[in-house]
């Protein structure tokens, strides 16, 4: 098991995906920001991913955590720290993107075979995907994702690996 700690105070809820979300089931972003405090999505303090998964009402994490507020400068900021207690391996993620999608391999079923013949089962891995907020193009209150003629697109994401 790994310990994760994204530093995000909010997320962009997706209809039909579990706690904090609305009653719809279309899987689209609801177009608003929700605070995570006091919910199973409050990952600001380190916790075991497995323990967190057991506390969720849905199949697992597939949520955009908001690292910045609309209007914030696109500056490099801490996104997440993951530590594997058994090996001492540490992953630190920083990005200039305003969000990070945390996904916990919710739909792997063991049919994919990887290195050494190991089968990838549900929750056997995770992703930290830096990004703009989902559906930002249709949400005027979200950080802009539009690139206009003559503008330059530039963002930075760093993945740093170390040991404890």
> What is the CATH domain class?
Mainly Beta
* Main β sheet profile: 5 strands, antiparallel
Number of strands: 12
- Gross CATH architecture: Distorted Sandwich
- If helices are DSSP runs of H or I spanning 4 or more residues, what is the number of helices? 1
Based on CA atoms alone, the radius of gyration comes out at 16 Å
Flag low-confidence runs.
19-24
Q: How are helices and strands ordered from N to C?
A: EEEEHEEEEEEEE
Distance separating the two termini? 15 Å
Shape: globular
Q: Averaged pLDDT, please?
A: 86
Secondary-structure class: mainly beta
Please state roughly what percent of the residues sit in beta strands, choosing from under 5%, 5-15%, 15-25%, 25-35%, 35-45% or over 45%.
25-35%
Strand order of the largest sheet: 4-1-6-7-12
Question: What is the total domain count?
Answer: 1
CATH topology: Beta-galactosidase, Chain A, domain 5
**What is the share of helical residues?**
under 10%
Structure description:
The chain is mainly beta and 164 residues long. The protein has one domain (3-163): Distorted Sandwich (Beta-galactosidase, Chain A, domain 5). The protein is built from one helix and twelve strands, in the order ββββαββββββββ. The protein has a five-stranded antiparallel β-sheet. The longest helix has 7 residues, at 49-55. The protein is globular.
């Amino acid at each position: 098991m790994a310990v994760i700690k994204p530093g995000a105070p909010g997320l962009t809820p997706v209809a039909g995906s579990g706690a904090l979300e609305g009653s719809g089931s279309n899987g689209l972003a609801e177009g608003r920001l929700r605070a995570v405090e006091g919910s199973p999505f409050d990952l600001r303090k380190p916790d075991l991913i497995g323990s967190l998964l057991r506390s969720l009402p849905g199949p697992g994490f597939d949520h955009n955590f908001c690292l910045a507020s609309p209007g914030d400068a696109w500056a490099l900021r801490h996104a997440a720290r993951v530590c594997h207690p058994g090996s001492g391996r540490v992953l630190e993620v920083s990005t200039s993107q305003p969000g990070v999608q945390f996904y916990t391999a919710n739909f792997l079923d063991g049919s994919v075979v990887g290195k050494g013949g190991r089968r990838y089962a549900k929750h056997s891995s995770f992703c930290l995907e830096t990004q703009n907020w989902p559906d930002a193009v249709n949400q005027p209150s979200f950080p802009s994702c539009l690139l206009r003629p003559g503008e330059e697109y530039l963002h930075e994401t760093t993945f740093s690996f170390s040991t404890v």
